[in-house]
Amino acid sequence: MTSNPNKPTFNTDRSRLFKDRFAQFGITAGGIMVLIALLLIFFYLLYVVQPIFESAKVEKRASFNVANADQIVGLGVEEQTEVAYLLDKQGQVNFYSVDKANFGKKLETLNAALSGQVTSFANSAPFQGHYAYGLENGTVTIVKPKFLVTFPNNERKLSPRLGYPLGEMALEVDEQGVAIKRFAFSHYEDKTAVIALTADKRVVFSSFVAQENMFTGEVEWQVERTELNIDGRIDELLISPDTTRTFVRSANQIYVFDTRYPSEVEQIQLLSANEENANIVSSQLLAGANSLMLANDNGEISQWFEVNTDSGREFQKIRSFETTKQSKLNIFTEFYRRTFFTTGQNGELGLYYTTSEAKLWQGKVSDGAIEQFAIAPRSNAALILADNKLTVLDVYNEHPEVTWSALWQEVWYEGYPEPGYIWQSTSASDDFESKFSLVPISFGTLKAAMYAMLFAVPIAISAAIYTAYFMSSELRRVVKPTVEIMEALPTVILGFLAGLWLAPLIEEHLPAIVGLLVLLPLGILATALGWTKLPAAIRHKIPEGSHSILLIPVVLFIGWLSFAMSESVELWMFDGNVRQYLTNELGLTFDQRNSLVVGIAMGFAVIPTIYSIAEDAVFSVPKHLSNGSLALGATQWQTLISVVLLTASPGIFSAVMMGLGRAVGETMIVLMATGNTPIMDWSIFQGMRTLAANIAVEMPESEVGSSHYRILFLAAFVLFIFTFIFNTLAEFVRQRLREKYSSM
C-alpha cells in the first residue's frame, strides 16, 4: 500500500512547544514559590514566638570573698550589673566591680552621714532604690547609692556616689527619742512615711510632707505622728510605696491600716493568714504593692490581694505556691513584674511568677544559708551573700508572664473580683500588670466573622442563584460585573463610612434598621406573591429574567417607610428612647460601634467574593442536566434544588469558605467600626476586638522583643492557623462534594 503524497502532514511548531513547556514550568515554579512563601511565613512567626515559651535559667557568674560578711545588712547592684554595693551596720557602703574584667575589685568605700548609733536597717520598694538606717535617738536617715557616668578618653566610667533623697538631716520619727528597733519606710513624690517599732514597744506611724518656705526658699517638713494600738509582739512592718497602706505582722496575724490620712490612721482588716499546723515566717509586698505575699514554715507561699465583697474591699487568699519546707524562708520581689524569689537556710533559690501560678526555676546556689539577696533593676541578674561570699547570678527570665494557661485560660488578676479572660496590654501606670489572654480577641474574630456571614451569605448566595439561573443574559452581563467591581472598593472606605456614618445612623434610627431587616424580606415575598396573582397578559409584558427590576421601587419604599415610622415606633413601643429601654428593661448594653454595624459593613465587603464564586459555580452547571430535568417534567424550582444546587454545591461551599476567610482576616472595617473592646459577649449591640485589628492597633507601639511584641506575633500565628484550618476544611468538603456529585 503506497502513501498519498498529496495528504497533508501535521508538524508541531517548535515555538509553540517551547511556549507550552515554558508556561508549564512557570506555573509549577509559581505554585512552588507560593508554598515556600507560606512556609517561610509560618516558620518566621514560630521563630519570633518561640522565645516566650523558653524556660527560665539561673547561672552563676562568679564569686568573691567578703570581709565581715556578718555585718552586711543590705545589697544592691546598678542597672548594667557592673558595680555592686554592700551596706553594713556601721553605715559604710562598699562598692565592688562585678564586671567580668575586674570582678571582685573594691572600687570605693563611702560613709553615710549618721547622727547616732545604728539600731536597725530597712530598704524601700525595690524600684525606689532607697535604704535607711534607724538610730538610737529615734531618727531615720535615708540614703541612695548613685553612679556618676563619665567618658574619660572615650571610655565609660562609673563613679560611685552616696545620695540623700531627703537631705543629710535625719527624720525625727519618734518625738520621745527612743531607739528604733524595726521600721519600714517609703518616699513617694513630696511625701515620706515611716512606720517604726521603738525600743519601748510602741508602734509609731510618722508622715513627713515637704513644703517650701515662700520667704527663705528652704524645704520644711510638716510632720504628723500616730501611735498604733497592736497587741502582741511585732515581727514585720511593711508599707506601700505610695504610703496609703501599712501592714504590721504580729506572729500569725496581719494588721492592715489605711494611712492615707496620717492623723486618722484606720485599721481596715485583721488577717489570720497562717495555715493549719504552720506559722508565718516572712512577708513581702509584690511589685505594685497590690498583693501581699506570705511565707509559712511548711513551705507554702500565698498571695493575698483585695477583692470586692459585701463588706467592701477585703484581702483574700488567691493562690499559693509550694517550695521546700524550712523555718527560714524569705521572699524578694522584682522591681516591676509580678515575679518573686525565695531564699532559705538550705541554699536553695526559687523563682516564681504569681499571676500564671508558675514555678519558673528552683535550684541550689550555695552550700550555706543565703543571708542577703538583691535583684538587678533589669531583673537579669541577682546578688546573694552566702558562705561569706558575694555571688553574682545571671538570670534569664525574659517572659515570665507568658504561659499557656495565661494565654488560654481564666486568670485572676489583682483587683478583679474573679478570674476572667482579659486582654489589656498597656496602661499609664508603672504598677500595671499586662494581661495577655488571647481568648477575647480570638472570640471577637469569630464573632465579627459570624455576624458578617449572617448578613452576607443569604444575600450573596441568593443573588448568585438568581443571576446565574433566572436572570436574562443581557441583564446578567450588567449585574455581575457591577457586583464584582464592589470588591475593588477599599475596606478602609467601608470602615470609615461604618464608623462615622452608619454607626450614628443605626444609633439614632435603631427601630428603622430592625424594621428594614424584617420588612425587606417580607416585602419582597409579598411582592412576588402579588405578581403571581396578576393576569398573565400583564406578567408577560415583562421580559423573562428581568423581574428583579420591579423590586427596586419596593426596596426604596420599604426603606423610606421604615425610617419614616422609626420615631413613632420608638415613642410608642419604647417611651421615646430605645437605648434606655434596652439598658433598663432588657439589661443589654448598647455601644454605638457594635456587632450590627460590623455585620452590615463587613457583609458588604464579603458579598462580592461569595457572589462571584457562587455565581460561576451555578452558571457552570451543564445545561444538559437542567434541560433533562425539565424534560422529565420537573419544575424550575425542583430542577434548581435537586439538580443545579447539588451539582454546584462544591463551588458554593468554596465561595462561603472564601468569604469566611476574608471576614476572619479583615482589619480596617473591624478596626474602625467595632470600638475595639476586648470583651466576650455575643450581644449584637456590643463591639469586640479581633486578632487582625489588635495587631494593627498595638504593633506600632510595642517594644521590639518584648512579651507584648512576641504575643502580637503569636496572635498573627493564631490568625494564620484559623485561615489555614478554614481553607483546609473548605477544600476537603469541596472535594467530597465534587466526588459525590461528579457523576451527575
Describe this structure in words.
The protein has a domain at 439-503 and 592-741: MetI-like fold, CATH 1.10.3720. The strands form eight sheets. Strands 6, 7, 8, 9 and 10 form a five-stranded antiparallel beta sheet that branches. Strands 1-29-28-27 form a four-stranded antiparallel beta sheet, with no helix packed on it. Strands 2-3-4-5 form a four-stranded antiparallel beta sheet, with no helix packed on it. The mean pLDDT is 87. It has 15 helices and 31 strands. The chain has 744 residues and is an alpha+beta fold. It starts with 13 loop residues before the first helix and ends with a helix. The longest helix has 36 residues, at 14-49.
Topology:
Elements lengths: L13 H36 L7 E9 L6 E6 L5 E6 L3 E6 L8 E6 L6 E6 L7 E5 L3 E12 L6 E7 L7 E2 L7 E9 L2 E8 L4 E10 L6 E10 L7 E4 L5 E6 L2 E6 L7 E7 L7 E6 L5 E6 L3 E10 L2 E11 L6 E5 L5 E6 L3 E6 L4 E7 L5 E6 L5 E6 L2 E8 L7 H5 L14 E2 L10 E2 L2 H32 L2 H13 L5 H18 L1 H24 L2 H4 L11 H24 L3 H7 L10 H25 L3 H9 L4 H30 L2 H6 L17 H8 L8 H35 L3
Antiparallel strand pairs: 1-29, 2-3, 3-4, 4-5, 6-7, 7-8, 8-9, 8-10, 11-12, 12-13, 13-14, 15-16, 16-17, 17-18, 19-20, 20-21, 21-22, 23-24, 24-25, 25-26, 27-28, 28-29, 30-31
Helix pairs in contact: 1-15, 3-10, 3-12, 4-10, 5-6, 5-10, 6-8, 10-12, 11-12, 12-15, 14-15
